[in-house]
Amino acid sequence: DATDLSAQIQSLREGCFEDVVRQYVPVESVEEQWNLSALERVLSDEWQLTLPLQHQVNAASAITDHDLLDTVRNHANTVFDEKVALVGLENFTQFERMVLLQTIDSNWRDHLSSLDYLRQGIHLRGYAQKQPKQEYKREAFELFGQMLDAVKNEVTKVLMTVRIQSNEEAAAAAAELENRAERVSNVTYSAPTETGEVQIKIDETTMPVEVPRVGRNEPCPCGSGKKYKHCHGKLA
After folding, report:
1. Residue 186 — pLDDT band, cuts 50, 70, 90?
2. How far, in Å, CA of 171 to CA of 27, rounded?
3. Which one is predicted more confidently, 138 or 183?
4. What residue ranges of the chain are covered by domains with CATH 1.10.3060.10?
5. Does residue 90 contact residue 174 with C-beta atoms inside 8 Å?
6. How far is the C-alpha of 126 from the C-alpha of 135, rounded, in Å?
7. Which of 40, 69, 84, 231 would give a disulfide with 220, using CB separation of 3.0 to 4.6 Å?
8. Which CATH homologous superfamily contains domain 1-87?
9. How many CB atoms lie within 10 A of CB 165?
10. CA distances for 158 relative to 97, 147, 150, angstroms
11. What CA–CA distance (Å, rounded) separates 194 from 213?
């Protein structure tokens, strides 16, 4: 559904720009701790977004780190919406769907390889007086979180920086991505179930690898201290 896809893409985009902003404007920080010149440079060089953040701070009688985050996210959403309007929602939705699926497919393959490598060497943890099973579960979740972050960042980077000037270009780009996708194995991904289980299915030609599952109200295994649904579960 186009509406649901747009909501998912927006969630990825806003999460991505929150990560970018927080590198230079930490949570609950004050102006003396902000590196706005570096943030402005990154937004311009890597994301093609021009924002006079320092000017905004100088002109404001009072401003918080949350205000700056809102400014960046709102501007990114506006630029993205203008891009979609240029080529039409239907055409761009087809393109962003293929970008999302291909990015998930590529990163899931890398994740499987990482899990396989982890599983092959996990027995060595016993010699370091660690419990191999618990170490595997913890590191598998870390790898899964890294995969979700990679999907979020890669999808957002492609969709924010791609230059499409017409409906025909959008359709052609989507068709090219679809042709590439047909040459790789089928990978389907769905959001967590009501029990909090992330469902990822791969075809029978791919070796199944068990990925530990976590309930949405359980602590996120990444160690952040947040509930899974408020941490890496937001991306799943």
Report:
1. very low
2. 40
3. 138
4. 1-87
5. no
6. 10
7. 231
8. Helical scaffold and wing domains of SecA (1.10.3060.10)
9. 9
10. 12, 16, 12
11. 13
| CA gap 218, 229 in Å, rounded | 8
CA dihedral 186, 191, 192, 197 (to 10 degrees): 10
* Continuous H helices in 122-186: 132-161, 167-182
Residues, the chain, total? 236
29 or 212, higher pLDDT: 29
Residue 226, CB-side half-sphere exposure with 13 Å CA sphere: 9
Do 7 and 80 meet the contact criterion of CB atoms below 8 Å apart? no
* Helix, strand, or coil (residue 188): strand
Average pLDDT over residues 181-197: 43
Q: Under CATH, what is the fold of the domain 89-236?
A: Helical scaffold and wing domains of SecA (1.10.3060)
